[in-house]
Write a structure and sequence with these properties.
alpha/beta; 6-stranded mixed beta sheet; 5-stranded parallel beta sheet; 13 strands; about 45% helix
Length: about 400
């Protein structure tokens, strides 16, 4: 098993909370992590039809099998169980008694906040980070990021040495489409497949629900609903704009990204490194990749995202603004393997507008990390060195 960076946070949470909830996309390693970390805890999955039926028919009897607690996988499938867990943990007052996992964040969160408020610690577990892969020795042979954008970072691709294009094909059919059917009344699955592909084509773009809906033949409200489901299932995320205007008119809509570039590349039918090298989405996918890594760093620490982007009406943009209290850290992302002077333009403008004295970063597709013109230039492999 590849050691996960979230283990430290998990170790701390079980010391202070009777319940720990781990959410994240399907196949991100939640079950593997919990079963490895809590080897002596009983494990039960509500994906098992018999276990689900038992828990629905008799929640109290179902939980009575686990007097010292348990790992309960895909717990969002039975919302009734949370109030019974509350009674048990309030009676026993044992830290780390129940470990709950789920792959639909908002559904799980809403039920937990109703029944287990103050009793539960949260971790959001996304696919591997490049640091986790590097520590395990599972690195890209030629050191180029293009193959990593295509392969993505979902654990099964590495743990089982699977061909990424076959794995993503099965992932979409087995998990995404099934989960969508459970949440939405999607009568035309082909229409939803087109929708998610159109989302992949818009990676890194400001979200325009009306245009997206028109391209897919659905209404603005339906597009909003479908985006919400993709968010709750950890397929996509929205990067909000930062509100600091510095006397400028700002873009107010979020930008659209995928939690894993491998899935986005598969949806765009990018098959190999040669295709990626000339594909018009390469720059956006690289940007997506780096932003996703920064978000993973926050989530693995048990924290919420503190990332934004900044763009004014004239088109001046900073790819990422990291908000650290009153300090704003700008990050520009360039897929090029070489740095040219023009890359510094937006950082220079933003630093003058904001008067910021914080470190400024530029992450690029090359190998070396260094400082130039006061900007910290980082290889994509070193993006974890940005403190967020």
């Amino acid at each position: 098993m590849i050691k996960r960076e979230a283990e430290f946070t998990l170790r701390e949470l079980v010391k202070g909370y009777p319940v720990v909830a781990i959410t994240g996309p399907r196949q991100s390693g939640k079950t593997t992590l919990t079963r490895h970390f809590f080897k002596n805890k009983p494990y039960v999955s509500l994906e098992d039809p018999d276990e689900l039926e038992f828990s629905l028919d008799d929640p109290k009897g179902f939980l009575s099998r686990f007097p010292k607690g348990a790992i309960i996988d895909e717990v969002q499938r039975n919302p009734k169980i949370f109030s019974y867990i509350q009674t048990i943990v309030d009676t026993n007052k044992i830290m780390g008694m129940f470990i709950l996992t789920g792959s639909q964040h908002f559904g799980l969160l809403s039920h937990i906040t109703q029944s287990l408020a103050g009793r539960v610690g949260f971790i959001q577990l996304l696919p591997f980070t490049i640091t986790e892969l590097a520590r395990s020795g599972k690195v890209i042979a030629d050191g180029k990021y293009e193959s990593l954008l295509i392969k993505g970072l979902y654990p099964p691709v590495y743990d089982r040495n699977l061909d990424a294009k076959y794995w993503y094909s099965n992932y979409v059919m087995t998990y995404i489409e099934r989960d969508v059917r459970q949440v939405l009344n999607v009568k035309e699955l082909n229409q939803f497949q087109k929708f998610i592909r159109m989302c992949a084509a818009r990676v890194g773009q400001v979200l325009n629900l009306s245009a997206l809906g028109n391209d897919c033949g659905i209404s603005h409200n339906t597009a909003r609903s479908w985006i919400s489901v993709l968010e709750t299932s950890y397929i996509v995320f929205l990067l909000p704009p930062h509100h600091s205007n510095y006397g400028k008119r700002l873009v107010k809509s979020p930008k659209l990204y995928f939690h894993d570039t491998g899935l986005a590349a598969w949806l765009l039918n990018i098959q190999d490194e040669d295709h990626m090298a000339i594909h018009p989405a390469k720059g956006a996918l690289f940007e997506n990749f780096i932003i996703s890594e920064l978000i993973k760093d926050r989530y693995n620490k048990g924290l919420l995202s503190n990332l934004y982007f900044w763009r004014d009406s004239s088109g001046i943009e900073i790819d990422v603004i990291i908000e650290k209290g009153s300090i704003l850290v700008p990050v520009e992302i360039k897929s090029s393997q070489t740095i040219v002077q023009d890359f510094f333009k937006n950082l220079t403008i933003w630093n003058k507008l904001s008067g910021s004295k914080a470190k400024s970063y530029m992450v690029y597709g090359g190998e070396e990390s260094y400082t130039r013109s006061g900007i910290h230039i980082l290889s994509w492999k070193d993006c974890h060195k940005i403190e967020n």
